[in-house]
Amino acid sequence: MAQLKPILSHFDPIIPYGPAKFKPDKTTAYRFRFPPRITLWSFLFLFLLLLFFFCSPPSSTSAGKRRSLQNTVFSGRHRLSPNWETKARNSALPRSKSGFSVLVTGAAGFVGTHVAIALKQRGDGVVGFDNFNNYYEIGLKKARKSLLDRHCVFIIEGDINDAALLGRLFDIVHFTHVMHLAAQAGVRYAMHNPSSYIHSNVNGFVTLLEACKNANPQPSIVWASSSSVYGLNSKVPFSEKDRTDQPASLYAATKKAGEEIAHAYNHIHGLSITGLRFFTVYGPWGRPDMAYYFFTKDILRGKEIKIFEGANHATVARDFTYIDDVVKGCLAALDAAKKSTGSGGKKRGDAQFKIYNLGNTSPVPVAKLVSILEKLLKTKAKKKVLPMPTNGDVLFTHANISLAAKELGYKPSTDLVTGLQKFVEWYLGYYGSKKKSAW
Ligand SMILES: O=C(O)[C@H]1O[C@H](OP(=O)(O)OP(=O)(O)OC[C@H]2O[C@@H](n3ccc(=O)[nH]c3=O)[C@H](O)[C@@H]2O)[C@H](O)[C@@H](O)[C@@H]1O
């Protein structure tokens, strides 16, 4: 019985352990009948059964515990397809012996979809992982999933906070690499839903790193940090050596926290970790919460768009980076990632720790972005110039990419006009083919 107390207390801390001081009121007391003997025996049997269930020792290996997930159809709030394990194993198989086996988190997201397809196309095995949350239209995420299906990339619907599911996944697939792109993105949304940033970018990241740490073999990790970590840094172009201790948004703060957490896991557990600071990535299959995307939608609808400017009419500019260039940077970072050194959750030697900027090195004012869109859409925008709200935005971003160029061979080659042209073509095709007008 001594063992039972803490277990029961876990389930219902209100249940008292000592004899209950239960005083039946008179109305119930007079109706009370002593139960028949058969009922008493049934209760006793049930009680012993429960006692056996709760007191039986837990499986000695974490793998044993996870095995119980094998036949689970639901994990958290997510629905797993009945044969998800077989599908994941198959999808993770590289075409050649030297190919990677990569887990791509956030695979139904913008960058995740592109990276997963690029990896598959070059012969690597890929398993996608995404929680399909409703931060923006789920229909777009489902459409990206269909695209992944067509490229034979299997995607698990799960949350990176689901430690049991991740543990089970790492048991059945020995991933060589993890491309971690699942995150709560968006700079301004952090004002509305701050906890979602902590949930995904801090808790979720730690849960994933724990799973990687415990995996045998440990995978090498490449993950998406953000240009926003430079915050109020005014030294341009932004170099990886510049200060990143002045975040201007909670989003930036959680990405910066991610970089520090990654360092701790690298230092303690021997995980090989590479962080990539993305600079305003745009392109086909992009994110509807980003300015270039909703500007396109609003220009076509004839709806007013707001163009922010700094104090004294200072220009607001971004180092917009085209998706194909970022994908090349991601793949190069995976290729350059050295192996993790830990095993059995313990560090066996120093492991690689890297951070790279992946930008375009040519900032463009937001007003210029709008004029390019106007030309491509052959429609005049209804513009309203407003002071930049103090909700997390920074005035400008500009990447110094010499480190990524030197160590990854990273060389962005798409200018904003070319990239936006590809985006607009995709946008018109995607929403046009849905037969219902998006504008
Ligand atoms: O590079 C990054 O690290 C970040 O890039 C983007 O953040 P942001 O550059 O702010 O991109 P948008 O939200 O698309 O904004 C682009 C520009 O348009 C401006 N803007 C935005 C909205 C608006 O109504 N008007 C307007 O002028 C913003 O001030 C900003 O200068 C992404 O949303 C982040 O998830 C990402 O991490």
Top keywords for this entry?
439 residues, alpha/beta, Rossmann fold, 7-stranded parallel beta sheet, two-stranded antiparallel sheet, 42% helix, 14% strand, globular, binds uridine-5'-diphosphate-glucuronic acid
Question: Please, could you describe this protein's structure?
Answer:
The chain is 42% helix and 14% strand. The chain is an alpha/beta fold and 439 residues long. It has a domain at 66-284 and 326-360 and 398-413: Rossmann fold. The strands form 5 sheets. It has a 7-stranded parallel β-sheet, with helices on both faces. The protein is globular and about 75 Å long. The structure holds uridine-5'-diphosphate-glucuronic acid. The site of uridine-5'-diphosphate-glucuronic acid has 19 residues, from strand 10. Keywords: Isomerase, Membrane, NAD, Transmembrane, Transmembrane helix. The chain crosses the membrane at residues 38-57, 99-119. Its main location: Golgi. Belongs to the NAD(P)-dependent epimerase/dehydratase family.
Compact summary:
With 439 residues, the protein is of the alpha/beta class. It is 42% helix and 14% strand.
